[in-house]
Amino acid sequence: PDFKALIERIGVNEGFRSKPYQCTEDVWTIGHGLTWLTEEESLTILSSRISGLHLKLLDDLDWYKDMPPEVQGVIIEMCYQIGFSGFCKFKKAIAHMKDVNWKGAAKEMLDSKWHRQTPERSEQLADIVREHG
Length: 133
Fold this sequence. Notes:
single chain
């Protein structure tokens, strides 16, 4: 079959919804009529979003390109979890990162609602930042 035409036709017929909804059969659905994802599909989406965040950070934060790769990874993960605008609220941590004060940045990362909500993850990421000092 002509897969390109098939994808286009199914895409049009299913329509696209970026948020979950219940179809006419009361089944939770997202995207173009998807009711489930394989782990491989989910990892493909995750990879695409991570790449997109990296490009956004390069475009929007002039200092980001100068960060060590491991710190860039932490910043990307924070943006993935709490959003770009959520990350940008970490003004003191960001100031320390710009000053290459990794211990200060890690300390500020942990002085947050984010840390109280997800302590294990935030401590793991703060440890990565701290280890660059």
